[in-house]
Design a protein that fits this description.
Layout (H helix, E strand, L loop, with lengths): L6 E3 L3 E6 H15 L3 E6 L6 H15 L3 E7 H4 L1 H14 L2 E5 L14 E4 L3 E5 L8 E2 L2 E5 L7 E6 L2 H15 L5 H11 L12 E7 L7 H11 L4 E6 L6 H12 L3 E7 L4 H9 L1 H6 L3 E5 L8 E4 L3 E5 L5 H5 L3 E7 L1 H17 L1 E3 L1 H5 L3 H21 L6
Parallel strand pairs: 3-4, 4-5, 12-13, 13-14
Antiparallel strand pairs: 1-11, 2-10, 3-6, 6-7, 7-10, 8-9, 11-17, 12-15, 14-18, 15-16, 16-17
Helix pairs in contact: 1-2, 5-6, 7-8, 9-14
Length: 389
């Protein structure tokens, strides 16, 4: 059995959705049109007006006989909000399950953002059910501009794969004995062949702590190792292990134009860890751009205008080695070029960091960055059982 392969299917229609202004209307249209079932999985389901619009849409769907199953992460959404949502959904006939309440399964979180409607349309990306203008870790804080993020709307054969994934996730969150869980796992991973022979290939890649422990990382590595012209990567939390850093450095060394758009200003300690990587990246020729306009939450990449990914996985130890994540990988020139244009606009709105800029940072700050990284690496090494190095 081959491990860590991307299950590509052809003849899919993939539409890029930029920020909540494009995502939420598209999502609500599909919810309002649902006839049989809706599966919605999200890390954060807030209590703001935007989230209430989606909540009311789900409740209306249940009222007209649609089976609605909602999965929310207990930590990401918050204990109190999970209680409020669960009560409201239960009263309205919406099924709701929380992932890992009270950390009974350890520190793992379900960081995925997926929705499948009527087995015909799916959404996968990085956008939580929360208002673009509100900070996702402090709802009382208004952002200076809408949060910068992406999702995709999918129709075509790939929807069946996404539907299978959320259906199994829903079953996992229910009450299953050990034999039932093993049988579910076996069926879920019975077929991982790559379907080729037509353009516009796309595949779902997930990360879990069973078979797919490094699937998302390996998808990135394969794309970067084969890069010939350019790599564009945007992520809010940049703290990859050595394999991913090495892939970026080697790509730049062989002449590939590598550009990283990095979110800063959200968490001081996270910024310090990220800054610790700057010297080696800059010396290797990697272009670094900090996005300071608003909260950057996108987890996207484009390689050679032929390979692209949109999803929930950050470029750090938590996403790559602990949390459950979901990305879509697309091999399509038109989609890749569309995403590239959006990313180039983000780069234009960012601030370029050069080696001489980093050299002007006071020595004590640079020492602080290194110390924080050493602590981060040690903690990640422990919680990932030695996988983060």
């Amino acid at each position: 059995m081959r491990r860590h392969t991307v299950n590509f299917t052809a003849e899919n229609t993939i539409e890029l959705l930029h920020c909540g202004s494009e995502f939420f209307p598209a999502l609500l249209r599909q919810i309002n049109a649902a006839c049989t079932e809706i599966y919605l999985e999200t890390y954060i389901f807030s209590g703001d007006e935007t989230a209430d619009t989606i909540k009311e849409g789900l409740i209306r769907a249940a009222a007209r006989g649609v089976m609605v199953n909602v999965m929310i992460d207990w930590h990401g959404t918050g204990r109190l909000q999970v209680g409020v949502l669960s009560k409201a959904f239960q009263q309205a006939g919406v099924n709701c399950r929380a992932f890992n309440p009270w950390f009974r399964r350890g520190v793992v979180r379900s960081h995925r953002k997926i929705c499948v409607v009527d087995k015909s349309v799916a959404f996968v990306g990085g956008i939580n059910i929360t208002d673009d203008w509100r900070c996702d870790f402090d709802p009382e804080l208004t952002l200076p501009a809408p949060r910068w993020d992406f999702s995709v709307q999918i129709s075509g054969p790939l929807v069946a794969n996404v539907h299978q994934e959320v259906r199994v996730q829903w079953a996992r969150l229910g009450k299953l004995d050990l034999l039932s869980r093993f049988d579910l796992y076996r069926k879920m991973h019975a077929n991982h062949d790559i379907v080729t022979g037509a353009p516009a290939l796309a595949g779902l890649v997930v990360r879990d702590n069973l078979r797919n422990r490094t699937t998302i990382q390996n998808a990135y590595l394969r794309a970067m190792h084969h890069a010939k012209k350019s790599i564009l990567l945007a992520n809010p939390y940049f703290a990859p292990n050595w394999k991913l850093r090495s892939a970026l450095l080697m790509a730049a060394a062989r002449g590939v134009d590598v550009t990283l758009l990095i979110g800063v200003g959200q968490f001081g300690l996270q910024d310090a860890v990220t800054h610790a990587f700057y010297p080696s990246l800059l010396k290797s020729g990697v272009k670094l751009v900090e996005y300071r306009k608003t909260q950057l939450h996108a987890k996207v990449a484009v390689v050679d205008d032929e390979w692209a990914t949109v999803g929930s996985s950050n470029y750090d130890g938590l996403s790559l080695f602990i949390n459950q994540e979901a990305n879509i990988v697309i091999q399509d020139a038109d989609f890749s070029q569309t995403l590239r244009l959006r990313m180039q606009q983000g780069i234009a709105d960012g601030v370029r960091v050069r080696l001489e800029d980093y050299a002007r940072i006071p020595r004590y700050k640079r020492m602080w960055y290194g110390m924080v990284y050493v602590v981060y690496r040690s903690v990640m090494w422990v919680v990932t059982l030695g996988n983060y190095v």
